[in-house]
Every structure is written in C-alpha cells, then in structure tokens.
C-alpha cells in the first residue's frame, strides 16, 4: 500500500474511532461535562479562537466558499478527463468526510453529550413556569424593539 493511501486509511480509521467514542460518551454526560466541557474544550476553544478572532469575517464561510467554488470544479474536471478512478474518488471523499467529522467532533460535537442545563444549574421548571418565562421574554423583546424604533426615528 502506498504511503498516501495508508495516510487516508489512517484518517478514516481515526474517524471511525471518533464515531465509536462519541457513542460511548453519550452514555456518560458527567464525564463529558467534567473532562471535556470544563477541561479540554476551553483550551481547544482558545487555541482556535485566537487566530480566527483576528478577522472580521467567518473563516469557515471563506473555507466553504474556497472548497465549493475553486476546488470542486478542478476535481470534477479531473474526473471527466478520466485522470482519476472511481475507487480513488470514493477514498478521497471518505477521507474528506472523516476529516470534517473529526474536526467537528473534537472542536464542538462532544459538547452535545454534556449534562442538560437544568442539571448544571440545579433548577427545574414545570410547564406553567416555562410558559410564564417565555411569555415574559417575548413581551420584553417587544418592548425593547419598540424602544429601539422610537430611538431611530
């Protein structure tokens, strides 16, 4: 097996490992809350936020624009010129998908398995209390909206 094929197979293997790990972590929200959300995630967030926070626009939107408008047409042209085979296309697509999955899981996805907010802050509301909160929130939004309109005019 060539080295670049081994690398792609390794990336796909890591992606599958992340998938299995996330399924296991979903059963243990206490562990996710303690070790990931309050331990590892703040460090990862600072690591990613510092360089991307220097820009006035979303880096991810720029990357999507780059991938869709620049890379995709070049790749499609190679496919139509038959310089690339079907198994290579599938391998590349699977590798790319695994990279996206790993990135998302590591930098945000694990937080989906943390404790619910009610358990973190030790409160629970019945349906009437929830309805009251929502109603008050909507009323407050309308009041604020009216105040902003009068300030603009």
Précis, in short:
This protein has helices at residues 3-25, 29-52, 59-80, 86-107, 117-120, 127-152. The protein has 153 residues and is mainly α.
Number of strands: 0
Strand content range: under 5%
Q: Determine the fraction of residues in helical runs and give it as a percent range.
A: over 70%
Q: How many discrete domains? A: 2
Uncertain segments are none
- Derived structural class: mainly alpha
N/C terminus separation: 70 Å
Helical stretch tally = 6
What radius of gyration results from the CA coordinates? 23 Å
What is the helix/strand order? HHHHHH
Overall, the morphology is extended
**Average residue-wise pLDDT:** 83
Largest sheet, described in full?
none
Describe the SSE topology.
Blueprint: H1 3-25, H2 29-52, H3 59-80, H4 86-107, H5 117-120, H6 127-152
Helix pairs in contact: 1-4
Task: Characterise the protein shown here.
The chain is mainly α. It folds into two domains: 89 residues, no CATH class; 31 residues. It is built from six helices and no strands. Helix 1 packs across helix 4. The longest helix has 26 residues. The N and C termini lie far apart (70 Å). The mean pLDDT is 83.
